[in-house]
Specification:
This is Glycosyltransferase 2-like domain-containing protein. The chain is an alpha/beta fold and about 325 residues long. The protein has ten helices and 13 strands. About 40% of the residues lie in helices and about 20% in strands. Strands 1, 2, 3, 4, 5, 6, 11, 12 and 13 form a nine-stranded mixed sheet that branches. A two-stranded antiparallel ribbon has the order 7-8. The protein has a two-stranded antiparallel sheet with strand order 9-10. α1 runs parallel beside α2, α6 packs parallel to α7 and α8 runs antiparallel to α9. The longest helix is centred in the C-terminal third of the chain and has 24 residues.
Length: about 325
């Protein structure tokens, strides 16, 4: 069995690959693969002509982030001990893959780990997706060191440590192959967004730790597929967050959370309407409607006779801190 495969998912990302793939080729020590979600642009021609050393897995349709990785990784199942799932819009740094793999090799109780993720556009600022390590509050709202809601911190070395987190970012996720396949990968029903948080939650319920390695920095462009302000992204986040909670929380807790989130997000929808952002309000309502419509298709997480790794974040109610108390930095929680 080989040590590690670096696996990049691509869909019509020719220009993104031209910008970011050179750093991956330059600084990586392990095999590089690209899974292509049936691109119709010049991505494949560019890869074949410019980087023939990169292995290609061609899918017959666009299965999104979750399905694309699930189907693509089946092609190399059992060949590699570790997998690094890397967004196509990430610039890596010297020793990045060796650092992540070395951490997992030295910590067998960890299933996955993410690096420090900084903004590619503003290099001294943390990135939205994962930043300095991710957590969940009691209502399932994700937040990060270095990023609370939409407020991003400057990188001053404050998160150069190594800690246990609740979830690792799918922008750059190093994971043991056996753990990924034991969980049957991502939930393909999610299509995109929140699927890595759901996977990490399931891993924690199985007694496996998730880590953050601040000694390894990477730079993420973000928004290459969907802009953070996109109504479609808002819809996917709402729908998939409810699905994740339904799968992983006991029934009585889920109903309490469902009602609490419903009230808060109805207020959010009203705020969008009053500010003229009708499409955003509709995205919230559509997220709830589509979750409820497909609830019977969602497979509840089975209880296993293991000790669950509990949430490790400092707060239970993120919105109370951000909206009511005006907290903008993780250290102020």
């Amino acid at each position: 069995m080989k040590t590690c495969a670096i696996v990049i998912l691509n869909y019509n990302g020719e220009e993104v690959l031209k910008t970011f793939l050179p750093s991956v080729v330059q600084f990586s020590t392990h095999d590089i693969w690209v899974i292509d979600n049936a691109s119709t642009d010049g991505s494949l021609v560019f890869l074949e002509q410019t980087f023939p050393q990169i292995s290609l897995i061609r899918l017959q349709a666009n299965f999104g982030y979750a399905g694309g990785y699930n189907w693509g990784l089946e092609s190399i199942k059992g060949e590699y001990e570790f997998l690094i799932l890397l967004n196509s819009d990430v610039e890596v740094t010297s020793g990045w893959d060796a650092g992540l793999v070395g951490f997992l090799e030295g910590n067998p109780d960890y299933a996955a780990v993410q690096p420090k993720i900084l903004s590619w556009k503003e290099r001294g600022v943390f990135d939205y997706a994962g930043a300095g390590g991710g957590f969940l509050d009691a209502l399932g709202y994700p937040y990060c060191r270095g990023r609370l809601w939409n407020h991003l911190e400057k990188d001053l070395g404050q998160y150069d440590d190594t800690i246990v987190v609740d979830w690792a970012s799918g922008a750059c996720l190093a994971i043991r192959g056996k753990d990924f396949f034991a969980m049957e990968g991502f939930d393909a029903h999610f299509f995109a967004h929140m699927e890595e948080i759901d996977l990490c939650w399931r891993l924690r319920k199985a007694g496996r730790k998730i880590g953050y390695l601040g000694a390894v920095p990477v730079f993420h462009q973000g928004g290459a597929t969907l802009d953070r302000a996109s109504p479609q992204k808002l819809y996917l986040n709402i729908r998939n967050s409810l699905s994740m909670l339904y799968k992983n929380e006991p029934g009585y807790r889920f109903m309490w959370i469902f009602m609490a989130k419903g009230f808060l997000e109805a207020l959010g929808a009203l705020g969008f309407l009053l500010s003229g952002k009708r499409e955003n309000a509709q995205a919230i309502m559509k997220g709830y409607a589509d979750f409820w419509r497909r609830k019977s298709l969602i497979q509840k997480q089975k209880k296993e006779p293991v000790r669950e790794i509990p949430r490790s974040g400092p707060v239970n109610f993120l919105l109370g801190n951000v909206w009511l108390l005006g907290v903008r930095r993780f250290s102020d929680l």
